[in-house]
Amino acid sequence: MKTLRDEVRADIERVIREMYGDWVLKITMKLAHSPFGDENLYIHMYLDDDMPHEEARKLGRLLVNVSDVMGEELDGVFPYIRPMSEGSVEYV
């Protein structure tokens, strides 16, 4: 299994916070295999419940920006970004 270096983790968090700012409460990340054996990066992005709906439209662009900073060692790993509310349960 590939590893998620601290530098890459920090770059991903920076990209998310640059796009969503103070609406982001917490970010967690975990590398895991899918049921089909693919390696994926699961990013749980906890957002303020009062975030305006139009902010959610940035998610597609965020996926591209996160993929750009993942680096060569995570080549072939797909990032799944899950917007979450405080108190939600992570299931990876």
Brief rundown of the structure:
With 92 residues, the protein is α+β, with helices and mostly antiparallel strands. It is built from two helices and three strands, in the order αββαβ.
Q: Can you describe what's shown?
A:
The structure is a single chain. This protein is α+β, with helices and mostly antiparallel strands and 92 residues long. The protein has one domain: 2-Layer Sandwich (GMP Synthetase, Chain A, domain 3), CATH 3.30.300.30. The protein contains 2 helices and 3 strands. It has a 3-stranded mixed β-sheet with strand order 1-2-3, covered by helices on one side. The longest helix is centred in the N-terminal third of the chain and has 15 residues, at 6-20. The chain starts with 5 loop residues before the first helix and ends in an 8-residue tail after the last strand.
